[in-house]
């Protein structure tokens, strides 16, 4: 008989839990270990089936999520054995299906627990369940057997009905009669995760009362034997995160300032770094208007997502920074992420791994390279879980929706200053409609300079088209056509239909004006106008479509093509009727359907 291994030097490892509550699923996991894993070599289960059992046990023993029911575990094991339903795999599934008959009495449960002693070779934290059972009194063992027997029959949803044997255990110093051997840890309540889960539910559903109460109850628990938990800075950081998610900037700033002071006093550098980084995320105060944003320096305890948020700051047009600076921050975040995972041993999260691809897609869109942006978005969509709560996947999906239907929030609190590029372009466009575009010529040149300096070539192309449009009013026909010819290859290679339609319409006018309305120039402009008509028809921009169709009918009229002129005139009239019909519609059906879907999703989230 081989000698017994020496006991560890520390009988109670520092990583062990102060308290362990015996639950029904622990008995089932021990049964799977005893029957399916701990077998002699001649009775071993197939390798693929054994690998599945190991993965299932690792997932359940780690307790990173609520325990699954007996029927869920049985279904997974049956599914795993379907590919190799022979030998001991078949015997294990049949024995597990008849498990209620194997534990009919408390004595059967006690005999099973006695047979587990050879599974443990030391006094490490692995044998919590066995030690807890040895400490139980006779009445407690009988109650555990009854809870386990009822749990085997339980089929309801554990999210709404508490399973048998999972009720909270309240430790009472006077009537603590469910244990024979009591330690000091069995007489005191120690911290559990239930109240923090309550806090997270309040954050998700937007219920501040539940969130605040859950957070307070969580950090009021006993974490160790000391008089001061030393976790006050963590409580303040979690509270500040909740305020940040709810956009309560004043409360978040005040809480973070207190958390920074507490973290410095406690010497908690990691929490101090998190608090400082979150403080730098907050928008500038009204008294700080015009001040440049604070860019984080890379620190050992810094999370890579903070560097990505710095890239977001550099993308703000009012900060007047070139897009290359934001792209440089993305490259720094990629390097920091590799160091964070490989060297610092940070927790791997799939959403964080693909976050840099989502940011790169935004930068490439600003650069005017929509095809590269689509590639980055496809990477996120392809390698993240479909239908999951991954925020990166949700962000990419929303960005795609915004690409097809762009929107601007005029009163967005995060943007106190208007855009240095889009606002002047909008004003020039409004004045052009009123035939006063030449008045805004200096403003257009300023916006064009900012767009070129910052590398926002999508807006730069729009500004060039508008410059050519306004230049026609000054009689610079050949110069206008030349600058349009320089940017048209880039415009046609992109998928911005509105920009493409406007550019083609302007180019057709430049061709006609530069050619002195000759027949050759008129014929050349037809293909540009027809392509512009297709773009505006697809976008359902009826006013712009009517302008293009009117110009196209005039061109056909000057070419003495009455048949095609009448066809275009008929399309012009149909477009006018559609425009009037859309103007008369108060609420469209798809809007009601969308709002109903949003209400259903909100109700489903609140019910969890």
UniProtKB/TrEMBL annotation:
Listed InterPro entries: Apc5, Apc5_dom
Assigned keywords, A-Z: Cell cycle, Cell division, Mitosis, Ubl conjugation pathway
Keyword Cell division attributed: yes
GO process annotations (BP): anaphase-promoting complex-dependent catabolic process; cell division; positive regulation of mitotic metaphase/anaphase transition; protein K11-linked ubiquitination
PANTHER family: ANAPHASE-PROMOTING COMPLEX SUBUNIT 5
UniProt record similarity statement: Belongs to the APC5 family.
Record protein name field: Anaphase-promoting complex subunit 5
Species this protein is from: Pycnoporus cinnabarinus (Cinnabar-red polypore)
């Amino acid at each position: 008989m081989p000698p017994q291994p020496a006991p560890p030097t520390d009988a109670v490892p520092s990583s062990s839990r102060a308290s362990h509550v015996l639950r029904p699923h622990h008995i089932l996991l021990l049964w799977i270990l005893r029957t399916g894993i701990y077998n002699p070599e001649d009775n071993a289960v197939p390798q693929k089936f054994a690998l599945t059992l190991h993965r299932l046990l690792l997932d359940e023993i780690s307790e990173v999520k609520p325990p699954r029911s007996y029927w869920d575990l049985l279904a997974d094991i049956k599914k795993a054995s379907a590919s190799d339903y022979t030998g001991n795999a078949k015997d294990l599934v049949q024995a597990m299906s008849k498990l209620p008959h194997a534990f009919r009495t408390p004595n059967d449960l006690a005999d099973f627990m006695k047979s587990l002693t050879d599974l443990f070779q030391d006094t490490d934290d692995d044998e919590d369940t066995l030690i807890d059972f040895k400490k139980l009194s006779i009445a407690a063992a009988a109650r555990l057997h009854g809870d386990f027997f009822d749990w085997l029959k339980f089929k309801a949803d554990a999210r709404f009905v508490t399973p048998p044997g999972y009720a909270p255990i309240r430790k009472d110093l006077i009537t603590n009669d469910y244990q024979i051997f009591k330690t000091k840890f069995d007489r005191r309540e120690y911290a559990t995760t239930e109240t923090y889960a309550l806090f997270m539910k309040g954050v998700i559903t937007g219920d501040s009362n539940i969130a605040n109460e859950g957070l307070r109850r969580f950090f009021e628990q006993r974490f160790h034997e000391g008089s001061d938990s030393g976790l006050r800075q963590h409580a303040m950081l979690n509270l500040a995160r909740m305020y940040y998610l709810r956009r309560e900037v004043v409360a978040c700033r005040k809480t973070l300032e207190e958390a920074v002071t507490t973290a410095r006093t406690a010497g908690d550098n990691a929490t101090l770094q998190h608090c400082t980084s979150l403080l730098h995320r907050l928008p500038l105060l009204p008294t700080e208007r015009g001040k440049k944003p604070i860019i984080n320096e890379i620190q050992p305890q810094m999370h890579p997502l903070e560097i990505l948020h710095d890239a977001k700051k550099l993308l703000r047009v009012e900060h007047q920074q070139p897009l290359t600076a934001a792209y440089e921050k993305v490259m720094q975040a990629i390097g920091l992420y590799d160091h964070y995972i490989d060297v610092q041993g940070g927790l791997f999260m799939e959403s964080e791994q693909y976050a840099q691809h989502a940011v790169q897609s935004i930068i490439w869109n600003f650069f005017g390279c929509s095809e590269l942006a689509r590639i980055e978005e496809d990477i996120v969509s392809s390698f993240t879980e479909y239908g999951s709560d991954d925020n990166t996947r949700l962000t990419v999906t929303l960005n795609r929706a915004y690409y097809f239907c762009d929107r601007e929030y005029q009163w967005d609190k995060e943007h106190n200053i208007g855009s240095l590029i889009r606002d002047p372009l909008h004003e020039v466009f409004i004045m052009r409609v009123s035939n006063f575009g030449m008045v805004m010529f200096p403003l257009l040149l300023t916006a064009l300079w900012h767009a070129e300096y910052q590398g926002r070539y999508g807006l730069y192309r729009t500004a060039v088209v508008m410059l050519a449009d306004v230049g026609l009013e000054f009689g610079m026909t050949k110069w206008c056509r030349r600058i349009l010819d320089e940017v048209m290859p880039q415009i046609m290679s992109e998928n911005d239909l509105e920009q493409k339609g406007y550019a083609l319409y302007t180019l057709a006018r430049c061709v006609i004006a530069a050619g002195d309305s000759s027949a050759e120039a008129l014929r050349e402009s037809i293909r540009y106008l027809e392509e512009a008509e297709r773009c505006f028809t697809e976008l359902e921009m009826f006013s712009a479509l009517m302008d293009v169709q009117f110009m196209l009918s005039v061109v056909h009229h000057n070419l003495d093509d009455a048949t095609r002129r009448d066809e275009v005139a008929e399309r012009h009239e149909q477009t006018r009727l559609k425009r009037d019909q859309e103007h008369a519609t108060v609420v469209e059906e798809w809007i009601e359907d969308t709002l109903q879907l949003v209400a259903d999703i909100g109700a489903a989230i609140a019910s969890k």
